[in-house]
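Q: Sequence in, structure out?
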Amino acid sequence: MDIDSFTESLQQEDLNETALRVLNLLFILNASATPLSTEQILQDSDLGYGSANRASDLKKFKRDREKLAEHGVSIVEVRPAGAKQTEESLWTIDRANTYATLGIITQKDADTLLRAVDECLARKEIPYRRALISIRHRLHALTHPLKQSDSDGADSRDADAHAAIGTAPSDRIADALWSAYTLKRKVRFAYRDARGRDTSRTMAIWGIFTQHGHSYYVGLDEQSGGVRTFRGDRITRVWRPSGNYTIPRWFNIHDYLFMPFDMAGGMTTAVSFRFPDGIGQAEIESLTKGRSALERRPDTGAWIWTVKVSDMRAAAQFALARAQMGMRPQSPKQLVDAWNTMIDKAVESHG
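A: Exactly. Output:
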């Protein structure tokens, strides 16, 4: 049973505190890259738990799992290999027992579903495309069964590969974020940055783009109060969206795409630029689009912006074009040398 149909069935009931809590629990378990611990669930007030009475929250959690089971959603306890009995429980959706298998679908129904899926896939841009491709291959296997001699062939391997893609946690997280964006609902998610630091963010997604095989989400980040860009594969968990928003008219996704020094392929290198004390933080963040780390030196008051670049020469050009505001290359030596070379050539050309 999918989340949308389950939500509709619950919405026909009284959407009281229990129903909302059950919906929140289902959403976060479905849109999480890893199983959630008991404490992660019980301490989360956004889910509807997080009270001062832990015993009461445990009873609520148990009743909510039973409620989900009534609707065909099986929440199970899992333990990593070698885990001790005293270790904290982890919880996830038992997908094998929750979602329908092809064995209970008649061939006639499968053929009808196959035609419907093909109509959807014919459109240029649709959400859940990879999941639909997975469903299509499984339906095709039912309506066009392979001969025994073909059982180890490419079609079978291809179907298995697409099935694996369709059930990946990253796909479920991407679908949840896409839903929040299309509905214009604020969404809370857990994020692990490039340095391995975990934070919880609440965001109004204003735009989505892809670059170098990764998806990026741009919008108003409530924690910082500014427009930020987050990489999709670093989002590890998504809560059920809530709270409406409107994308401002001045927003243009092209202003928040990557900078010139991101365009080259290959390895990236961390570089640092320096801004003088007289430049305000807001002005620097407007220039850097809130990318990467911005720190202020307590001794000089100068700002140091550290960011990864793919093209060292383009990074030096980026700084040179903003030299009038005091932007200077800091490190590494390769960046400083590229900057000096450009200045020398400019001086020579103007004799």
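The domain at 170-251 is CATH 2.30.30 (SH3 type barrels.).
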